[in-house]
Amino acid sequence: MTERDLSYASAGNGAAGNGAGDNRTVVFSLGSNLGDRLVNLQLGLDVLAASGLSLVAVSSVYETDPVGGVEQADYLNAVLLARSSLPPRDILARCAAAETAAERVRTQRWGPRTLDVDIIACGCVVSTDPALTLPHPRAHERAFVLIPWLELDSGAALPGWGRVADLLKTTPAGPDSPVSDLTGGVRRRPELLLTLPAQEADAPCS
After folding, report:
1. Annotated catalytic residue: which of 37, 83, 94, 113?
2. pLDDT in tens, 169-194
3. Would you call 104 a catalytic residue per the annotation?
4. From the candidates 118, 163, 187, 189, which is the catalytic residue?
5. Which of 94, 144, 166, 191 has CA 20 to 30 A from 176's CA?
6. Of 83, 94, 104, 188, which one is the catalytic site residue?
7. Annotated catalytic residue: which of 24, 116, 142, 153?
8. Could you tell me the end-to-end alpha-carbon distance of the chain, in angstroms, rounded to an integer?
9. Annotation says 22 is catalytic
10. Where does 3-188 sit in CATH, by number?
């Protein structure tokens, strides 16, 4: 997968709104810190693929310190790029289905979970709906989102915030932390691999 293959909203996907029609790039963040963390992440990919999303690329797996102040185990995290013409709310429903498949139980805000699937960005869509704020309201300050996203696309940009590479300079990982050897609570785990499920080829986009 090359950067030329990754077509982002800034290159002409739709404007704000929840309507279907535009084949947008969707950026997901997946995380797990309960049970078999890698199996849970892979399950998330499998469910999203089976739900009709066209998966494009998945990052390396990173182990990260938990955020939010709740004492809990470290997370495994990854970023997924997909393409979809579905409305964002329908994509959100597919994220919830993936979490349900992993038997996630919500008992505590910021607490541990078998699987967390967040929509980070959906093309250029901007939404202030409390049920689905786009882009994700805390993505710009989360190294465990920015680092794997930057791994997939060095030119990535978060709508309304700017280039991911610039945002990363303000996170705890710091401006001098190379993606291959991260500090600041985000550690690449090259021995842990996620696999994109086989999918039927999409028709070429015009």
Report:
1. 113
2. 887 654 444 444 344 589 999 999 99
3. yes
4. 118
5. 191
6. 104
7. 116
8. 20
9. no
10. 3.30.70.560
Active site (annotated) includes residue 181 = no
Q: Which residues contact 183 (CB under 8 A, 6 or more apart)?
A: 173, 174, 177
Residue-range domain boundaries for the chain: 3-188
Dump the DSSP string for the chain: --GGG---GGGT---SSS-S-S-EEEEEEEEE-SSSHHHHHHHHHHHHHHTT-EEEEE---EEE---SS---PPEEEEEEEEEE-S-HHHHHHHHHHHHHHTT----STT---S-EEEEEEETT--EEETTEEES-TTGGG-HHHHHHHHHH-TT-EETTTEEHHHHHTTSTT-TT--TTS--TTEEE-TT----PPP-PPPPPP-
Instruction: Please confirm, yes or no, whether 113 is among the known catalytic residues.
Output: yes
> pLDDT, tens digit, for every residue of 1-39?
333 233 333 333 333 344 555 789 999 999 999 999 999
